[in-house]
Inverse folding.
């Protein structure tokens, strides 16, 4: 009854694999080290015994083959972009080009030290300087700091700059306006900067309306944090008016750039009145997500905020590039060293591979793909905002709820059909959302397979709802007991003896 | 474009199915005034071979540890990475999934992170670890914020011997919330001045932050520091910028640390011009729910099979929004797992052996260089793989001279410490051979 027929999701041989701590044998090794070519002094001769450790009880003792098998086996329990369609909304799970990996591993990058002299780091500095120009151009901004390590880190950096800007004008202000559709990182970031969050409700069309902003805007509002295109996949078409209202009272406009993939070469946040935007290189600019990082969240900004950028910035004087630490108004540093540099190499390589026209084409096809899915599933699933979308479309389970089938059941059943589920139950303003972002790197055939699977699931909801409630059937494990995990937290293995 | 499969014909068919004539119509919501009416000023596309050539040309302009003898550490250490690590992290199954929100199809990442959390606990001798932070400095800043949340106190006492960039980042984070800072000096031994610590600690202090081995390379005696902090109800935060040291140095957990943070890039990820890196973050059981970051926990599925999920999400921003313990979302899973692969490959013996090799080589270099005329040891305390030399000539000039011999000789400490402007921080790892060390001594005027 759990069959998915002739679809790409099927069963295969998957091997069990215990924790690495339950494997190995005393004395087994997986490493080799060069011989000791200096006097073999005992540790306690060099360091007082009370500062030394006895051993590391519990660390596994395994061979190189064991390590390879262990990780290869468990890797096969993961779904990933390399396997198939991963339409996780607002996450932009596009293909990750392999040439980027090769470039990041060139010894001139991978084996360069962040404190080596600038004259011996000119290639790294040039790459960063050029990447800044490209990102500033795409975002329509004046400067970019490459330092932040992820999107939320970029938000934090951006808001810190805004706070420093207001402080320099005499009052850091106390509030930040955030639409209800915003990602949870926006309010969390505001709190980290000591700001109180004032929610702004979206209008009936799913966008932030100028009128609503005008009502709550005052001289204590430091900034509004908008996401455009927003988490409903809609372009914030009143953003220009919103920016004017916020600027009139001395506030700043922060744009969460998580969804930049839909507007490259089409519209620039900077031209819409945005003062600061973070750019998630692990979304729009093809850095692989790695199961939760590393990413990078460069922050693009208008020039009135440039004095507050984190140090160092990358500057160019004649043919020479240098790091500038002498910036007295800077907020300081948000991480050690210049940036998550390896990520920058990948995104630089991606931009050079795509070129100006390629970036625009990527946004066009990303939007086309999303609208195609929306048009084909409309009617089968409830579409709360029935208009053309940008990079993602948002459905709900309203039509399936009649059969007591919910978003989670639809999502889990998609796994059986060979697809990663969309983002679910987000944005919060839509009840039981299914947020689908296909990206430009998927072919029409893949989208058609996905659409067919979604339609079959809708049919199953009517004819055989139990199969959905028990889904997924095909993976190594089925639905996990998350309540138990939270009630009796077990966050590590412990030695038994 | 090779990354975009849909052809013009595919696009046309899709447009027809949608019921529009052109892609332009799909962008109708974007007001005309904010449409870009020219192409982006980004260079035109390059073929794969062209892009490889151009990027390689940039890489070739940089010095690197293959072409130079590298004696520079200072928070970013040149360690060997076993070949299998790179092969494993390049597996698409680890490289290309998202954060494991759907545990049924993410058990690989989840089990690997559960093992990573355990390995960090074993290495630091702490109770619980999160699934990674961005890197060492911001992890340390988050530890200061966590201590502020736990104690409700708003003063941080931080050792001046903590990495200058860790101090700078902690200051940036904490100043947003009005948390104040005081710095404790180091002694002639190169360790944090415990007398001064005791004077500065009070019931207003949330935490004492130290690093070991500290930025000057000296191993701190953590136990009395922990006792001093606990005596006033403050937490001890220990940052470890050089995790390889923990193969041999007593772990902070055994010395009474309440939060241990640090930089994991030394565990097999390497230099990368400073990043990507991975911040580790471990604490005591009782503080578990105050931790920032993702946590992986064990549970079972409907059929009773053991499995892993992201858990304790009620601390996190997507549930708690402005009341979250942190805003961190994407962190450094792949690098965390790479460091786990390193620890597993090395095992207890390998971690000890590589630490001992660092210690012995650095001790040899320390002896050898301190005997060169015009150089002496600046501090007397015990060191791991880094030490400070006082120099007669200006450190900057010495370093410049060494570059001609393909040697990157260390860090001019005047960059961060005006009081140490006649000092050089030298790092020696398992990657530096004895002939390299001898060549450094010779280049500095030490004969042989």
């Amino acid at each position: 009854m759990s069959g998915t027929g002739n679809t790409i999701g099927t069963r295969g041989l998957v091997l069990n694999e215990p924790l690495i701590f339950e494997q190995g044998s005393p004395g087994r090794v997986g490493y080799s080290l060069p011989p000791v070519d200096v006097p073999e002094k005992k540790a306690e001769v060099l360091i007082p015994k009370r500062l030394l450790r006895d051993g590391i009880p519990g660390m596994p003792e395994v061979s190189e083959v064991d390590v390879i098998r262990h990780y290869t086996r468990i890797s096969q329990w993961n779904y990933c972009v390399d396997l198939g369609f991963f339409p996780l909304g607002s996450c932009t799970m596009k293909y990750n080009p392999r040439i980027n990996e090769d470039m990041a591993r060139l010894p001139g990058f991978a084996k360069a030290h962040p404190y080596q002299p600038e004259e011996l780091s000119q290639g790294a500095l040039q790459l960063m300087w050029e990447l800044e120009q490209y990102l500033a151009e795409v975002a329509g901004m004046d400067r970019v700091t490459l330092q932040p390590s992820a999107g939320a880190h970029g938000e934090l950096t951006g808001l810190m700059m805004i706070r420093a800007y207001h402080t320099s004008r005499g009052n850091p202000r106390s509030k930040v306006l955030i639409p209800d559709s915003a990602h949870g990182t926006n309010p969390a970031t505001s709190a980290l900067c000591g700001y109180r969050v004032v929610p702004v409700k979206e209008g009936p069309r799913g966008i932030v309306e100028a009128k609503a902003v005008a009502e709550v805007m005052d001289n204590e509002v430091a900034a509004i944090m908008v996401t455009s295109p927003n988490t409903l996949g809609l372009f914030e078409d009143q953003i220009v008016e919103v920016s004017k209202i916020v600027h009139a009272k001395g506030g700043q406009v922060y744009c969460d750039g998580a969804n930049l993939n839909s507007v490259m070469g089409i519209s620039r946040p900077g031209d819409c009145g945005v003062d600061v935007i973070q750019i998630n290189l692990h979304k729009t600019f093809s850095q692989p997500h790695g199961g939760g990082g590393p990413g990078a969240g460069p922050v693009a900004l208008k020039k009135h905020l440039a004095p507050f950028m984190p140090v160092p910035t990358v500057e160019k004087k004649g043919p020479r590039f240098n790091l500038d630490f002498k910036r007295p108004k800077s907020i300081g540093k948000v991480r050690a060293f210049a940036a998550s540099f390896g990520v920058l190499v990948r995104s630089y390589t991606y931009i050079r591979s795509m070129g100006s026209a390629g970036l625009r084409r990527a946004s066009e096809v990303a939007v086309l793909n999303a609208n195609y899915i929306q048009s084909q599933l409309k009617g089968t699933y409830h579409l709360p905002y029935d208009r053309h979308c940008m990079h993602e479309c948002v459905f709900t389970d309203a039509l399936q709820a009649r059969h007591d089938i919910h978003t989670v059941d639809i999502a889990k059943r998609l796994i059986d059909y060979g697809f990663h589920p969309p983002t679910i139950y987000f944005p919060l303003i839509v009840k039981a959302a299914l947020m689908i972002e296909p990206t430009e790197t998927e072919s029409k055939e893949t989208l058609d397979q996905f659409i067919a699977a979604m339609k079959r699931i809708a049919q199953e909801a009517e004819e055989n709802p139990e199969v959905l409630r028990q889904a997924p059937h095909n993976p190594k494990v089925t639905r996990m007991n998350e309540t138990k995990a939270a009630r009796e937290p077990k966050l590590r293995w412990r030695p038994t003896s | 474009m090779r990354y975009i499969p849909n052809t013009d014909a595919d696009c046309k068919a899709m447009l027809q199915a949608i019921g529009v004539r052109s892609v332009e119509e799909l962008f109708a919501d974007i007001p005309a005034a904010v449409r870009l009416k020219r192409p982006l000023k980004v260079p035109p596309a390059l073929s794969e071979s062209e892009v490889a050539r151009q990027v390689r040309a940039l890489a070739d302009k940089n010095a690197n540890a293959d072409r130079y003898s590298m004696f520079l550490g200072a928070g970013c250490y040149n360690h060997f990475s076993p070949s299998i690590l790179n092969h494993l992290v390049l597996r698409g199954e680890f490289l290309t999934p998202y954060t494991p929100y759907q545990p049924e199809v993410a058990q690989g990442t989840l089990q690997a992170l559960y093992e990573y959390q355990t390995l960090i606990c074993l290495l630091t001798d702490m109770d619980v670890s999160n699934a990674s932070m961005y890197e060492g400095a911001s992890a340390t800043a988050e530890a200061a914020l966590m201590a502020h949340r736990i104690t409700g106190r708003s003063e941080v006492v931080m050792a001046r011997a903590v990495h200058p960039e860790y101090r700078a980042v902690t200051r940036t984070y904490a100043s947003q919330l009005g948390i104040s800072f005081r710095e404790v000096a180091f002694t002639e031994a190169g360790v944090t001045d415990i007398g001064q610590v005791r004077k500065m600690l009070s019931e207003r202090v949330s935490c004492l932050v130290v690093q070991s081995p500290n930025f000057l390379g000296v191993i701190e005696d953590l136990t009395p520091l922990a006792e001093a902090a606990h005596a006033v109800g403050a937490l001890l935060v220990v940052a470890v910028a050089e995790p390889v040291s923990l193969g041999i140095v007593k772990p902070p957990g055994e010395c009474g640390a309440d939060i241990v943070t640090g930089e994991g890039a030394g565990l097999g990820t390497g230099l990368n011009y400073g990043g990507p890196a991975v911040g580790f973050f471990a604490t005591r059981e009782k503080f578990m729910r105050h931790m920032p970051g993702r946590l992986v926990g064990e549970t079972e599925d409907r059929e009773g099979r053991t499995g892993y999920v992201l858990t304790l999400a009620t601390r996190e921003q997507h549930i708690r929004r402005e009341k979250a313990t942190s805003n961190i979302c994407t962190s450094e899973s792949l690098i965390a797992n790479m460091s786990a692969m390193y620890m597993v490959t090395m095992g207890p013996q390998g971690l000890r052996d590589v630490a001992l090799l660092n210690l012995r080589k650095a001790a040899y270099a320390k002896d050898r260089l301190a005997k060169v005329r015009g150089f002496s040891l600046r501090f007397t305390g015990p060191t791991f793989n880094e030490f400070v030399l006082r120099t007669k000539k200006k450190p900057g000039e010495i370093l410049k001279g060494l570059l001609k011999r393909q040697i990157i000789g260390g860090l001019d400490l005047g960059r961060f410490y005006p009081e140490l402007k006649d000092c050089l921080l030298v790092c020696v790892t398992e990657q530096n051979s004895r002939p390299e060390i001898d060549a450094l001594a010779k280049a500095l005027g030490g004969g042989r």
Summary: Chain A touches chain B through 203 residues (CB under 8 Å). Residues 328 and 448 of chain A are 56 Å apart (CA to CA).
